[in-house]
Amino acid sequence: MKQQLLLIFVFIAVVANCTIAQKQNDNKVSGYPLVSFDGSIGGNIAKADLLKVDSLTVTGGDFSIFSFTFTTTAVENLTEISSSSCKFSPEIKNLIASAKLGSKVFFENIILIHNPTKSTMHAPAIIFTVE
Amino acid sequence: MNKKQLFLIFVFFIASTFVYSQSGNNIGPVVRFDGKSGGNITKIDMLKVDSLTVTGGTYSILSFTFSVSNEGKLKEINAISGKFSPKIKNLIASVTPGSKVYIENIKVLDKQTKKIFIEPSILFTIK
After folding, report:
1. Which of A37, A44, A69, B60 has a CB 3.0–4.6 Å from the CB of A131, allowing a cystine?
2. Residues A123, A33: contact at Cβ < 8 Å?
3. Which domain range does residue B60 map to?
4. How far is CA A99 from the centre of its chain?
5. How many domains does chain A have?
6. Which domain holds residue A120?
């Protein structure tokens, strides 16, 4: 009887440990959104590569991009354009087209919506320098 | 199967599941400014901080760009460590409410694998 009890105890302990470990790893992998510009989150970029992309993308969990602010030093002063989707408007595209070597491009104030709950959250800014 | 064998199996399973659960704890570099990833901040609080911090493993900050937008102009300084140089401190001292402070192009070195990561930018608005 003692041996059976010990076996049951071992079984329960192993199952519980495996479940906890799995849950911890699941939490690390899923459910955390990452917003990127064609898979990139910043650094140096060629103007041609900037112009190829039409929208920001979000991966990891059921999220959509609600809005963002596009800021650039492409023209003399910092210029800001607000966008109410993930897409780059023709105005944003034109500003990117006028960027020069060393110009900065900021995608900031990125607001995400968690689709199932409709709750919102901010994503880190994406900042590029045109090379 | 005697008690000793069962006990050994039990210890083995506990140890292996513990190792498994810990194996994913190296979550990658997380860079913060005084524990923050952005938001609103006062100039006084910004001036209190002397460096960026990186957690999540054996990482060190190689470089970053510190920029401030003020009245439509952008001033930027490149740093070659996680520390804020006197020039950066002076730039912080010059900000006014509404200014934006960008800490970007943050390059982090994984000391074990020697891989370099670009980490998400940190953006503050001065209140």
Report:
1. A44
2. yes
3. 27-126
4. 24
5. 2
6. 34-130
> Measured in whole angstroms, how far is the alpha carbon of residue B99 from the centre of its chain?
22
Give chain B's residues under pLDDT 50: 23-24
What would the pLDDT profile of A47-102 be if each residue is shown by its tens digit? 999 999 999 999 998 999 999 999 999 888 899 999 999 999 999 999 999 999 99
- pTM of full prediction above 0.80: no
Q: How far, in Å, CA of A81 to CA of B121, rounded?
A: 19
The verdict on A11 and A60 lying in the same domain is no
Which of A15, A17, A80, A121 to mutate to probe the B interface, most B CBs <10 Å? A17
Residues A1 and A55 in one domain: no
Are residues A59 and A105 part of one domain?
yes
Residues of A in contact with B37 (CB under 8 A): 124
Tokens 């070597």 identify what position?
A101
Residue among A7, A10, A19, A130 with most chain B CBs within 10 A, to mutate = A10
pLDDT score, position A27 = 36
**CA distance to partner chain B, nearest, from residue A22 (Å):** 7
